[in-house]
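User: Could you walk me through two proteins back to back? I'd like the raw sequence and the structure tokens for each, with a short line separating them so I can tell where one ends and the next begins.

Assistant: Of course. Protein one, sequence then structure:
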Amino acid sequence: MVTPVLLGQSPQARAATGYDKSAFHVDWKARQARCPAGRISSNWNPVRRHGQDAIVVTFTKSTCSPCPHRAACTTARQGRRLTSTAVEL
């Protein structure tokens, strides 16, 4: 998740197609996120962006790139991360 990004601002959310942040299950205790295809994130990085605390969750390239649902998650060429402020999650 990349911050600060408001819910509903991704291309998928605006077009009402694909998956937005709300489609990802975040396990705060385990510090992991599960994508809509059931894959588990590989990295959890607390950051400070634009004066706000945020979490950047990354999925491995080998997990995300070949996924048949990838186009529904991101429009980025190498997008494998989900960034959000704690408030959004």
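----
Protein two, same layout:
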Amino acid sequence: MPDFHAPFPLERNPHLQEASKIMWEWIDLRGLAATPRARARMLNTGADLSGAYVWPRAGLDMLSLGLKWLALTFRIDDQLDEDDPDEQPGSRARCIEELCGILHDVPAPQSPVADALHELWKETRTGRPASWQRVFVSDFEAFLRSYALEAELKAVGRIPELPEYLGWRMYSVGMPWLWDLDELRLPLHLPDSVRNCQTMSTLRQAGSLHIALVNDVFSVERESITGYPYNAVSLTMQAQGCSLQEAVDQVAGRVTEHAQVVSRILEHLPTELRRRQLPPDVRTAALDHCENIALNLRGQLVWHASVRRYAITDITDITGQWAGNYPDDLLRQAG
């Protein structure tokens, strides 16, 4: 495992224990981990610990809301990436479009995931500006649709080159919509002119890819076993014919480059915000939000090294039969 470059402070939310209790009560209420195997997978994932590093400065209410979103999306990720070995693109696409439709008030077939998403989005959007809702929905849909895209590519046997892969990986890692949620803890919502400016876009892209590539290194062994091919380490090995360690080292080099981009932007951002002649409260909120993104790079690195989500013991048992961790209650509804 390389020494990943993440030269930022480490902060963890002090409300973790109480918010974790709220998250697990919600998981049980929504039936998202209704079997011992599913519950073990959720425990090994540590969605609550991840959220404590995603939103280290959030209050209890905001952190609890964020942990629900993380638990739900880890559930979706596991079922689509690991528990769906056939990956039929038609069934996958219908499933994804039904989930996206929920964000636009389109009724979907009942399932624990669909019902939880409907309830959670209703809770989240209440009282939020339409401009923020549009941004969140766009980023969350990009996250969801990455699963359909990967199924389509796998169905035709096409392995993308690394630049193409990174184009959707920055969304499939999930960080953009997680950072959209971070705005909910700020005293004001960022204006579109700030949120969408080139500097902010570059910062968010570099931060997303930093975390995505770290994730690819930590998950490459497990994903190789489950037959999931879309990983920067695997793609580098295939493209260059190099060893696993050589590919890992190359990916770690890209991680360093993205961390350096984030550092440079943070250094020059106060000057740029003043040049834009933004009100002081907007500048303060924007800087706080960008600092939170940088904290994520260090925090998510610690989370990856702390949890058993990427261990392989649950998929290499003596029977050799991989039955999945979650009940088939998502794709079945879309079939």
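The chain has a mean pLDDT of 91.

Let me know if you want the two compared in more detail.
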